[in-house]
């Protein structure tokens, strides 16, 4: 394996990881896809490759598509609502509106409703502006077919995409108000920061306690949140962070990571709450937040 090939892979690694993550909704599976991509890349005759970035994206996309079909069967047997594995993102990512939106919990859930090929085409075209010819090579379709798939996927996503979200500063302010209301158990303040039609989706994966269906409405969400707090044995603490390009809370119980709660804000109120408690989806977060917490 040449040093140049290694440098090329390393240079594009973040791009390839993001492509795989947006297709799969799992950082762990995205890392596996990158490993598979690397194993194939080492056997490539680079003298025959005109665009190495495009070629790497093609390999990654094909491996992600294979894994996506396997994950689909796994998700069909999943206990309760499924949420993407939360991904810590740097604060400056949140300032990049397009990138932050492309990995947001809300959009990732919409992508779950697409077919594997539609998802691959949408991610490559909308998030990374890959040409139709390159996408066609990656998914094994003609460029004309890819254009049709892209149009269909874009219409599907636009019909389900949340109303325009607000600035990062407004989202952080809403999160701070939510955190304060939670910590002080101030029910009125909690109601004030939630949109009337707020939706809470919690993912325990059948391992941790979570609502088996989305909880809709400010009153029901408050009752669910405060009911859970009332049963907590130990010290519950909240710490603001950035997850999937949006403000979120790291929730710890007696210092141990218990869950990640991401939010989506419309106007000045929280319209979406995404609470991941499944320990299998927190392994990466536990390692990363432990380093910053200690």
Can you walk through the features of this model?
- The protein is of the alpha+beta class.
- Helices cover 56% and strands 16% of the residues.
- The chain contains 14 helices and six strands.
- The protein is elongated, with a radius of gyration of 20 Å.
Annotation, overall tally of beta strands: 6
Structural class: alpha+beta
Q: Mean pLDDT score, rounded?
A: 89
Principal-axes geometry comes out as elongated
- Indicate the radius of gyration in whole angstroms: 20 Å
Q: Report the β-strand fraction as a percent range.
A: 15-25%
- Provide the spatial order of strands within the biggest beta sheet: 2-1-6-5-4-3
What is the count of DSSP helices, taking H or I runs of 4+ residues? 14
Report the uncertain regions.
none
Q: What is the CA–CA distance across the termini?
A: 39 Å
Topology as a string of helices (H) and strands (E): HHHHHHHHHHHHEEHEEEEH
Query: Main beta sheet: strand number and arrangement?
Result: 6 strands, mixed
Q: What percent of the residues sit in helical stretches (DSSP H or I)?
A: 55-70%
Keywords:
alpha+beta; 294 residues
Brief digest:
This protein is of the alpha+beta class. It is built from 14 helices and six strands. It has a six-stranded mixed beta sheet, sandwiched between helices.
What is the element layout, followed by pairings?
Elements: H1 3-11, H2 13-24, H3 27-41, H4 52-76, H5 91-95, H6 97-102, H7 105-111, H8 116-127, H9 132-139, H10 143-160, H11 168-184, H12 187-193, E1 194-203, E2 215-216, H13 218-230, E3 236-243, E4 246-253, E5 256-266, E6 269-276, H14 283-293
Parallel strand pairs: 1-6
Antiparallel strand pairs: 1-2, 3-4, 4-5, 5-6
Helix pairs in contact: 2-3, 2-4, 3-4, 4-9, 8-10, 9-10, 11-12
């Amino acid at each position: 394996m040449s040093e140049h090939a290694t440098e090329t892979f390393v240079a594009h690694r973040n791009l390839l990881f993001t492509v795989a993550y947006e297709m799969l909704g799992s950082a762990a599976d995205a890392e596996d896809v990158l490993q598979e991509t690397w194993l194939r890349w080492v056997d490539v005759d680079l003298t025959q490759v005109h665009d190495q970035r495009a070629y790497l994206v093609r390999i990654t996309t094909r491996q992600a598509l294979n894994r996506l079909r396997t994950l689909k069967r796994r998700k069909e047997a999943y206990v309760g609502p499924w949420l993407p594995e939360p991904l810590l993102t740097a604060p400056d990512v949140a300032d990049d509106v397009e990138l932050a939106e492309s990995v947001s919990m809300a959009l990732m859930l919409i992508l779950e409703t697409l077919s594997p090929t539609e998802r691959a085409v949408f991610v490559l075209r909308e998030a990374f502006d890959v040409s139709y010819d390159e996408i066609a090579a990656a998914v094994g379709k003609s460029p004309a077919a890819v254009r049709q798939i892209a149009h269909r996927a874009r219409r599907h996503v636009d019909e389900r995409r949340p109303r325009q979200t607000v600035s990062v500063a407004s989202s952080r302010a809403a999160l701070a108000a939510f955190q304060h209301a939670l910590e002080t158990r101030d029910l009125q303040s909690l109601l004030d920061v939630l949109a009337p039609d707020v939706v809470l989706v919690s993912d325990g994966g059948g391992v941790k306690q979570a609502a088996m269906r989305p909880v809709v409405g400010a009153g029901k969400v408050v009752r669910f949140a405060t009911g859970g707090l009332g049963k907590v044995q130990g010290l519950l603490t909240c710490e603001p962070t950035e997850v999937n390009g949006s403000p979120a809370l790291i929730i710890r119980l007696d210092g141990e990571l218990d869950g990640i709660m991401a939010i989506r804000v419309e106007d000045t109120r929280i319209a979406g709450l995404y609470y991941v408690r499944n320990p299998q989806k927190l392994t990466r977060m536990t390692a990363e937040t432990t380093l910053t917490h200690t």
